[in-house]
Amino acid sequence: LHMGKTMREDLTVVVKYIKQLYPPEFNVFTIYAELYHNYFASEAKKSAESPLEDKDIYLLLSWVHNLYPEDMRKDRALAEELDKVKLGSLLPSSLSKELEQRYLDSEEVTVKKSLSKCLDKEIQRWKEDKEPEKLNGHFQSELLGIFVIQSIYSGQKRAQNISRAVGEELSRRLWKELPVFLSSYREAFEDFKEKSKKHRHYKPILIANINNCWNFREYTEKHVAETDDNRASILSTLGDIENSGFEVLLQQLFAQLK
């Protein structure tokens, strides 16, 4: 951070005060910019090749793809000069790709664990002798109806803040994970539905799970492309969960009507 701030401030001084003191053929700004960039790049490479925590990888990739190229151009005069020099990336392409792969793998695992943890906690709640929570006056689980989606969205947002390409790749991976998660959710729901019919809050829990599907459906229809095979899989599984719950509720209703 100190290095980036120093480079930007010093190059701004070169543009405004030093450049005009030399003949144009000296290319004074280019010389300064390349020397600063080469030093910064060598330090970034050292960091990239050292043992890194996940948060360090994220920060370094943010500098390479976002902070460094964008922050340097905050001064308009500086941006114009930098566009002429074309300094390039802070890291070699191969090293940058390696870090991206490590970041994507780590983030994918983190989100998967988060989703699995949410489902485990929700299953545990079903077993408790408590009425399910209400959101906006309706039975619904904050864990499954909101937190799972937030986990996916937050992961995608962090990746997009590195670069568009990294964001798209993580989104592609997570869209594959959501059908897997929902399949596990469906199995757990079916298990509860069959084995817990005497649960004091059986009916409210069924309603809460039907309502959970609405958030997943809305998010999927808004963010997953119609051409994406995962979209059909997600919507199909949500339909299974909803219909399974409706079946029990309607049986009770038909019995009452009869």
From TrEMBL:
Q: Which InterPro entries match?
A: EXOC3/Sec6 (IPR010326)
GO CC annotations on file:
exocyst
User: The organism sits in which domain of life?
Assistant: Eukaryota
Q: Which GO terms describe its molecular function?
A: SNARE binding
- Gene Ontology biological process: exocyst localization; exocytosis
Its recorded name reads Tumor necrosis factor alpha-induced protein 2
Q: What organism is this sequence from?
A: Acanthisitta chloris
Q: What is the lineage of its organism?
A: Eukaryota, Metazoa, Chordata, Craniata, Vertebrata
